[in-house]
Structure formats: structure tokens, C-alpha cells
Specification:
By secondary structure, the protein is mainly α. It contains 16 helices and five strands.
Length: about 350
């Protein structure tokens, strides 16, 4: 298992955690203080062990880092153990003393004046190149320990940010935190409830009785099963092709981007009154051509939103960088195909049963 040690000044901890999170989503284990120092253990001994157990060091270089004796000692320990060092420079501070000695002749990543969204892929690609000099795929861990890039933001903020920024909204989110997982599931559950409520006009049109106390909870459960199946099958597909992605992190990311799933359901609202009739036994060929056109257009728009969601997850977990373009595309198509198959085999019978429960 390849591991990257991230050396940084405490004043640069935010960018260090972002680098850590991006690399772990890309398939590497990272060591970063203070996260990986066990409570009660000796700080210096833990750092030495962390360096010696790593295959690469990323040194976050800045004015603050150049004034830090701890960063200088970490560079010295990495050099003594012949561990490659990748400098990531946050500013143009001249390298002097030990920093000039250890880093002066090394090609560095210039991050000065650039936003995180601009250079995240540069960091991932540089690490991939250094750890796989032959151009092959880097060894990845099956069970990654995620980074802690920051506080878990509020649900409404995350929901809106996910809609506007796609996978970039995940940069400041700790996907491993139990609070994040709870928030993520709450977002997905809320989207499922909203989807159930969006069905009400279609239910009224088709004479579905939803006054039964069990009907709305069952409809919400049905609308929850479908996105969970989508997430699990997409994760299964990328794992089948060899990409690394922690299952819980992947699920949290999927839920936090749930605005796209909700939008895919919103554009289907005009379709539902037609499809409910189909589920209740009305043959498709008896529907007017206009209704068939609405079904086709709404379904295509909904699928487009789901593809955007899946693509955002692929970018967040650097699936293309791990698998290459062709294998990533194959895993993408496989995941979508598995979900469509599951929707027909599992979801349709459940929906049929739901409408029989509310049948007039």
C-alpha cells in the first residue's frame, strides 16, 4: 500500500487537508498530523514513523513553512530515508538554509495565486506520476482512511453548493465524519420525501388515494430505494474495473450531491401522470402521441441529471485518473446500465404494488 506523508506548517493546515482529501479520494493513503497521531502517543516518534512508512512526501512550502523547525526536521528525515519529496509552493518565498538544501534542486508544484479548483488535478496527477514512474496505475488501498478537511457544513448550504459547484462542493467536506454521513443521509431522505410529495398532482389526476397513513411513508421509502440502488451499483461498477473508492465516502458524496437527483425527479413530474396510468394497466400504445413525447422528453432530461451526478462522483474520486479514459467510460456505462436494469426488475414491481395500495 503506497502512502503519502504531508508535511506542513500548522498555519497551512487548510490546504494540507485539502491535498490529503483529494489524494485519498484518488486512491492513496495519506499520513497527516495531527489526524494520524494517536492520543497519548509521542508526537515526534509518531511523525518519524509516519515518514519512514511513506513512499512520498508532499511538502507544503510557504513563508510560514520556511520558518517552521518542525517542517525542516521532517524534510531532513525524509531525505535520510531516501523518500522522494514533492514541494507544493504556496508563495514565492525564497528557499534558504535546509529548505534550499533539500528542495532547491527539485521540480515543484506552483500553487501560488491559484484556487484549489484549479490545481487539485495537478496535485493528483503529480503524485500519480511520481508513484508510478512507468506510467502504470498506482497501487490503491481497498479501505482508505479519509482526510478531515474541515467542519461539516449545514444541510441547506451543502445542498445548494452541490447544485452550483458539483464535485467542487465536496472539497471542504470531511466525508468520513459520522456527522457528515448523517447530514448526507438526511439530505437524501428529504429529497425522497420531496419526490413523494411531487407525485401528489399525478396521484390526484389518476384517482390514487394517498390518505392511507402508510401510503406516504411507503412512497418515500420507494423513492429512497431508487437513489440508494443507483449509488451502490455505480460504486460496484467502478470497483469491478479496479478503481478505489471507500463505500461510505462514496455514499456520503452521492447524498451531498442529491440536488441533482431531486432535479431529475422534478423534470419527471409531468411524466408521472402518464406513467402511473401505465403502471395501473393502461397500455403504452393506447396513450396519445403527445403523452408519449412528454414521457420521452421528461425521461431523457431526468437521465441527463443523473449522468451529471454520476460524472461529478467520478471526478470527485478521480476515477478516470485511476482507470484511464476507456475503462472509466466502461465502468460509467456499466453502472448506469445496472441501475436501469434494477429499476425495471425491482423498482417497477414495487411501484405497481404501491399504486395497488392506493387504487380506487
Amino acid at each position: 500500500m503506497q502512502r503519502v506523508f504531508i508535511s506542513h506548517s500548522t498555519k497551512n493546515v487548510k490546504i494540507a487537508k485539502r491535498i490529503c482529501a483529494a489524494l485519498e479520494r484518488g486512491g492513496w493513503k495519506c499520513w497527516i498530523a495531527p489526524r494520524d497521531i494517536s492520543p497519548g502517543s509521542d508526537w515526534a516518534e509518531s511523525i518519524v514513523a509516519g515518514i519512514e512508512g511513506s513512499q512520498l512526501m508532499i511538502a507544503v512550502v510557504s513563508k510560514d513553512a520556511c520558518e517552521s523547525e518542525h517542517v525542516a526536521r521532517e524534510l531532513d528525515r525524509a531525505a535520510a530515508n531516501r523518500i522522494p519529496i514533492l514541494p507544493a509552493r504556496l508563495d514565492a518565498t525564497p528557499l534558504i538554509g535546509q529548505f534550499a538544501y533539500f528542495l532547491g534542486n527539485k521540480q515543484s508544484l506552483d500553487l501560488a495565486g491559484r484556487s484549489w479548483n484549479d490545481f487539485e488535478s495537478d496535485v493528483v496527477n503529480a503524485v500519480r506520476t511520481l508513484l508510478t514512474p512507468s506510467g502504470g496505475r498506482a497501487e490503491v488501498a481497498d479501505n482508505l482512511q479519509p482526510a478531515s478537511p474541515g467542519q461539516s457544513p449545514g444541510g441547506i448550504y451543502t445542498f445548494i453548493a452541490g447544485a452550483m459547484k458539483q464535485e467542487k462542493a465536496l472539497a471542504d467536506v470531511d466525508l468520513s465524519e459520522p456527522r457528515t454521513l448523517g447530514l448526507a443521509f438526511a439530505i437524501l431522505l428529504s429529497a425522497s420525501l420531496a419526490t413523494a410529495i411531487l407525485h401528489i398532482p399525478a396521484w390526484n389526476e389518476q384517482g390514487i388515494h394517498y390518505g392511507n397513513p402508510a401510503f406516504i411513508p411507503l412512497a418515500t421509502a420507494y423513492d429512497l430505494i431508487e437513489p440508494v440502488a443507483f449509488c451502490l451499483l455505480l460504486h460496484l461498477a467502478i470497483r469491478m474495473f479496479g478503481a478505489a473508492a471507500d463505500a461510505l465516502q462514496f455514499f456520503s458524496a452521492f447524498c451531498l450531491l442529491g440536488s441533482y437527483w431531486l432535479m431529475s425527479n422534478i423534470v419527471q413530474a409531468p411524466v408521472w401522470v402518464r406513467t402511473i396510468a401505465f403502471h395501473r394497466g393502461v397500455p403504452l400504445d393506447s396513450l396519445p402521441i403527445g403523452d408519449l413525447a412528454v414521457i420521452a422528453a421528461g425521461s431523457a432530461a431526468a437521465l441527463a441529471f443523473k449522468i451529471v451526478l454520476a460524472r461529478s462522483l467520478f471526478r470527485a474520486f478521480h476515477v478516470t485518473e485511476q482507470l484511464g479514459a476507456v475503462r472509466a467510460a466502461l465502468s460509467f456505462v456499466t453502472g448506469i446500465a445496472l441501475w436501469i436494469l434494477s429499476a425495471w426488475v425491482i423498482s417497477k414491481p414495487l411501484e405497481d404494488s404501491l399504486y395497488k395500495l392506493g387504487g380506487s
